[in-house]
UniProtKB/TrEMBL annotation:
Highest taxon of the lineage: Eukaryota
Segments of this protein annotated with the region Disordered: 125-147
Protein name, as recorded: Uncharacterized protein
Upper taxonomic lineage: Eukaryota, Viridiplantae, Streptophyta, Embryophyta, Tracheophyta
Protein's organism: Morus notabilis
């Protein structure tokens, strides 16, 4: 599949390890690894996925850390983490997360969790003094995203100092996500 640019594995793989080998998927720009409940490890060889710009992972509750090989993805700009375990998310926080070094060069890292109402809530990596993001409105008659434009003390895992003042956006459907600013 040398011309494939988008790959969505949504509950489509039952293995514990997923290995992207050197030279494979040369044109791929986006991968969604969703609902892979047994997945523990993702390996990415040097030279594999060389054009990948966006990676979405989760929920994969067996995976305990972001793949070390993510540093091989030189063009990766967007990383979305969906409903992953607390340890997974905490290890990527910029203020002391032991795996932050793996993703520090990724322009946009977002964490998604469902709240009590069933809406997806976004938590982005941030320091305690970060400013809330502003919604990006586009088109002739844009629909603004449903956004809490303020600091919110709740984290995906309850109240915790491990997630200082996360920035929160609430979306009721996938179309709202496209209107949210790239920050």
């Amino acid at each position: 599949m040398p011309r494939l640019v988008y790959l969505n594995l949504d509950a489509a793989y039952d293995g514990e390890e997923l290995h992207f080998e050197n030279g494979g998927f040369r044109k791929l720009k986006e991968i969604n690894l969703k609902n892979l409940k047994w997945l523990k490890v993702v390996k990415i060889d040097q030279g594999a996925l060389s054009h990948l710009e966006k990676l979405e992972i989760g929920p994969s509750l067996e995976m305990k850390e972001v793949p070390t090989d993510i540093i091989n993805l030189r063009k990766l700009k967007h990383l979305d983490i969906w409903e992953m375990p607390r340890e997974f998310v905490a290890a990527m926080q910029p203020d002391g997360g032991e795996h932050f070094w793996k993703i520090k060069n990724v322009a946009r890292v977002r964490f998604w969790r469902k709240d009590d109402a069933g809406d997806y809530v976004e938590y982005k990596l941030s320091s305690s003094n970060a400013e809330p993001p502003k919604p990006a409105l586009s088109g002739s008659n844009p629909k603004p995203p449903k956004l809490w434009d303020r600091r919110h003390p709740y984290t995906p895992y309850g109240y915790s100092a491990a997630f200082p003042s996360p920035l929160v956006g609430v979306y009721t459907d996938k179309s709202d996500v496209n209107n949210f600013a790239d920050y």
